[in-house]
Write a structure and sequence with these properties.
This protein is of the alpha/beta class and about 260 residues long. It has helices at about 25-35, 50-55, 85-95, 110-125, 140-155, 160-165, 190-200; strands at about 5, 10-15, 65-70, 75-80, 100-105, 130-135, 165-170, 175-180, 205, 210-220, 225-235, 240-245, 250-255, 260. The strands form 4 sheets. It has a 7-stranded mixed β-sheet with strand order 3-4-2-5-6-7-8, with helices on both faces. The chain has a 3-stranded mixed β-sheet with strand order 10-11-14, with no helix packed on it. The protein has a two-stranded antiparallel sheet with strand order 1-9. Helix 3 (about 85-95) runs parallel beside helix 4 (about 110-125).
């Protein structure tokens, strides 16, 4: 039998939410607090929104992935669109992760797109972590929003295991998170700890032939063709030359020379 094991040093998560509830701002804070940027490096807000149209409209249109390291654990993060027009993008990305952060505004509460993305996550048997964002707003009603979100889980027929979700309170703008609002905190440590504790490590099958679920194709002027996705079986190393295969077993004409994965050996 293939050697199956869980990669305890990896977590794969997507951040899902209604538009403007703070997903991209939260990713910015996570990147900054885990040393992704140099101390003296100038970093623009909404660093994950690299597309010109995204910056112009102030919304996320295309899913982006980034990796941070916290306590020797690599956390692969996918920032997904929050606007209802890009729901299919969210649905594809959810197939590549092992857990989700469901971000909900502390004043607005669950909104229509919250229901849509949560339904997709629950249908894929993912167990969300509820993140109540913008708790620093003067009109925040954080505990009521937790109750409203629990009711939404019930409405969407969540399992008992999914109903046992963790709750983290957060101000993504200030880069601070709390287990309880009245606690002391000056960082996102409670969020990182909850991710490591509640999201299952991915299962690796290094002895099987390489198989990868490609969820997005892109092109870089320096690297060339890019395939983004999730390794399901096998292993891959930096510098390996990978070809996309047609269903009849023949190679695709264009070689993928750069490949970024959400998980793998």
């Amino acid at each position: 039998m293939p050697n199956q094991l869980r990669r305890k040093d990896i977590r794969n998560i997507a951040i899902i939410a209604h538009v403007d509830h703070g997903k991209t701002t939260l990713v910015d804070a996570m990147l900054k607090q885990t040393g992704v940027f140099r101390q003296n490096e100038e970093v623009a807000d909404r660093v994950m929104d690299s597309n010109d149209l995204e910056r112009e409209r102030g919304i996320t249109i295309f899913s982006k992935n980034a990796s941070v390291t916290y306590k020797n654990t690599k956390i692969n993060i996918v920032d997904t669109p929050g606007h209802s027009d890009f729901g299919s993008e969210v649905e594809r990305i959810l197939q590549t992760v092992d857990g989700v952060l469901l971000l909900v505004d502390a004043f607005e509460g669950p909104m229509p797109q919250t229901k849509f993305v949560l339904r997709k996550a629950l249908d894929l048997h993912l167990k969300p972590i509820l993140v109540i964002n913008k708790v620093d707003r003067p009109d925040a009603r954080s505990h009521e929003v937790v109750d409203e979100t629990f009711d939404l889980f019930c409405e969407l027929n969540a399992t008992d295991e999914q109903l046992d979700f963790a709750v983290v309170y957060c101000s993504a703008k200030d880069g601070v998170a709390w287990y309880e609002i009245d606690e002391e905190s000056d960082s996102l440590k409670p969020l990182f700890e909850t991710i490591i504790r509640r999201v299952l490590p991915p299962i690796a099958n290094p002895d099987k032939p390489l198989q990868m679920l490609i969820t997005m194709l892109d092109y870089d002027n320096y690297i060339g063709s890019l395939g983004l996705g999730r390794i399901v079986h096998g292993e891959m190393s930096v510098g390996d030359q990978i070809y996309m295969m047609r269903r009849d077993g023949t190679k695709h004409a264009e070689k993928i020379s750069g490949l970024f994965t959400y998980r793998g050996m």
